[in-house]
Amino acid sequence: MDGDSFVWRGGRAEVTLSQSDESWTVLYTSSGRLMGPRQVLYRASHRDATHAAWDVMARVVLASRDEDEGLRAGQSAAKWIKANRQGAAAATELR
């Protein structure tokens, strides 16, 4: 997790949540069996942050085949979204 995006990694899979101007983007990528270049398996854009967090949860469940891991990732993504929103509001106030 860094300031620009939330990232969940497990095995060859990676689920990334990032924010653009007015939407949230969920990206699910994986490398090949021989560790080839990453391939985009899924990409979606959401206007609602809640839907984006649910989408992260669903992609992690698919990637990990573990519902508990998906739930933890979804909760972490929601916390990241909340912190990201507060940081953006504070930066706007400073301008």
Short summary:
Helix 1 (49-64) packs antiparallel against helix 2 (67-94).
Task: Please describe what this structure looks like.
The protein is α+β, with helices and mostly antiparallel strands. The protein has one domain. Helix content is about 45%, strand content about 30%. The protein contains two helices and four strands, in the order E-E-E-E-H-H. The chain has a four-stranded antiparallel sheet, covered by helices on one side. A hairpin with a 2-residue loop joins strand 1 and strand 2. Helix 1 runs antiparallel to helix 2. The protein is globular and about 40 Å long. The two termini are about 25 Å apart. The relative contact order is 0.18. The C terminus is likely disordered.
Kindly state the number of beta strands: 4
Please state the structural category.
Answer: alpha+beta
Cα(first) to Cα(last) distance is: 26 Å
Radius of gyration: 14 Å
Mind summarizing the main beta sheet?
4 strands, antiparallel
Strand order of the largest sheet: 1-2-3-4
Spans of 5+ residues with little confidence (pLDDT < 50)?
A: 90-95
Query: What helical percentage do the residues reach?
Result: 40-55%
The coarse overall form would be globular
Order of helices and strands: EEEEHH
SS field, number of helical segments: 2
Beta-strand percentage? 25-35%
What's the average pLDDT?
88
- Integer tally of domains: 1
